[in-house]
Amino acid sequence: MRAPGKVNLSLRVGAVGADGYHPVSTVFQAVSVVEEVVATHADERTLSVSGPQAELVPTGPGNLALRAAELLAERTGIDAGVHLHLHKGVPVAGGMAGGSADAAAALLACDTLWGAGLAREELVELAAELGADVPFSLTGHTAVGTGRGDLLTPALSRGEFHWAFAVQDAGLSTAAVYGRYDELVAAGRPAAQVDGAEADVALLQALLAGDAHALGAALHNDLQDAAVALDPRLAEPLEVARRTGALGVVVSGSGPTVAALGRSRQHALVLAAAFTAAGAADRVLTATGPVAGARVVGVLDTGA
Ligand code: ATP
Question: Which is nearest to 139 in space by CA: 261, 128, 84, 201?
Answer without folding.
Answer: 128
